[in-house]
Fold this protein.
Amino acid sequence: MKPVEIVLIYQSLLGIYGDRGNAMVLRKRLQWRGIDAVLTEVEPGDAVPADGAVYLLGGGEDAAQVSAVKGLKTDGHIFDAVEGGAVLFSVCAGFQIVGNTFTVGEHDEVIEGLGLLDVDTRRGDVRAVGEILSTWTKPDGTETLITGFENHGGFTTLGPAAKPLAKVEIGIGNANDATEGAVQGKVIGTYPHGPVLARNPELADHLLELALGHELAPLPNPELDELRRQRIAFVRKHGRG
Amino acid sequence: MAVLTTKATPAAISVVDRFRLSTAIFAGNAAALASRLAGKGSGASVRGQIITRLVPDAFSLLLQGRRVLSVSGTNGKTTTTHLLAAALRSGLGTDANRLVTNADGANLHYGIASALSQSRRADIAVLETDERVVSDMIAKARPELLVLLNFSRDQLDRHHEIKALGRSWRKALEAAGHDGPVIVANACDPLVVWSAGTAAKVIWVETDTVWHADGALCPACGELLIRIPAAGRDRWDCPGCELTQPAASYRVDGGTIVLPDGSAVSPNLQVPGSFNVSNAACALAAAVEFGVDVADALAGMHTVTAPAGRFATARFGETDARLLLAKNPAGWAEALPLAQSDPVVLAIDSVAADGKDVSWLWDVDYEQLAGRTVICTGPRAHDLAVRLAYAEVDHRIEGDLKAAIVGSGSAAVDVIATYTPFQAFLKMAGLR
Ligand SMILES: [Zn+2]
């Protein structure tokens, strides 16, 4: 069987918040379950594979966002991949460029995104910087907390085709409107770093289950449980920190 | 080139201002002493705060009448400042007391004012300067020399855009024009080169930079930079505009520094790591530009052992711990290869001085520690533990900093810490 391919896109542009970690987490969680997995790193100018299982985009600055959109549109394969049912998980600046439009620079120049998520991002009235805690309702209807650290100046509003990923308990999230992230088919965007999949293993496994089409057994890790307990306790006691 | 023996133009400070300053420094010293007696550290920052509260323009006034050399960049500021100060002292010989420096690493307005207030007659100031203070330093101190080491991601919860600081430097250098400082700068760092681009004169140094992750895009035009293979090390170039790696006057080659005349000298440093050879090359270039002989400068730099506690060895219980500071991914990339002990102690915190977001742990190649045991400590020990679990590196957690070292069961350990636990270790060891 072909190994499950995790595609990490443009780390030199969109990877300033430890975003590589999301890819490392996905690969290890497959390997630890005895599932063959491969991590493919794509830099601008490289061809993006069209048949990957999970594609990842991370955080970066304005100029990097513009450059990444240009590169991905020129290459084009990411659109085929999503069309073909691949999972696309995007964080922060990555979340913004996956949407319809976002803005860059002091004069808020509007840039066309990839249009894979029905969201639009504009400069917010505050910069969202700090710990964030939200509640994610999983596909089976149960709830779990998502913990992370957000750091973004853009506020994102959802169009009718996208649904929020989670409900904010503490933090700013999409636009200080209690919603966090967006889901549209197998395209997911979210703001928290941490990296978010390192701090939220259930979300990591959800992405893998979406990609594989079947459920995965849990991977107990007491240190990770303790880390989550600490971060959740911290944000509930100190707010955004 | 400057002449070392040239005396600074005396400050034109009015008698009234002199008196106000003296009174403020007296009050600041009293506050610093109280802070020290209360065990709250050196008191440098408190002194600076009190002085500035009483005399709001103390920073400017205290800089007057001095020939200023300023050192900035994301990593290596403290060590380079020590190396440069030692090189100058060596050149000054019996006049070494002409020099004042903020040796404690307090590099914001308060810290600088505090250091200057303690040596009012010293007319040469070697000042470690936080990246955010550089533009003010250029405007107010008219430094003769400014050393720009490197620029990389650091505390992104505060500095949202790495380029923003460079933009402020460009503006300040442009405003200073021909009256501005001679820059000694790292030619391998595109952001540094762009930031220094408006300076009247630059002496370029080709360094052993290991961290390139923040130099993907041209800071001038946003194009993707390319790397041109070259004998020695690759050069960077922008295909979209004229920004390109400048030809260097000084060059780090292995453990040696190649001088403008092509001869190579061994810096023979007591501080470890190839990154410190790069720091020494910048310090040497600055010292020579300031009129110090190469031999004098090297002799001075050789005396530097543990700048503000960095690389110091201290005893905790039965264990000798070598203390390394790493504040960001570039710093960890430099420090990790130095830490060869097994076990090794890594201490992580996330208060304001460390950066509140520890996502950067995933930018660090902890995989290189495989086969050894890591003792994770500090308030964010669990974040590190999870990172190490994914790196498949053996580890255990010991929340208490001192217990992490004492309980290592080792005669000697290397310790790498972020800013806050590093300062705590120094304090426990009586080194600050
Ligand atoms: Zn360019």
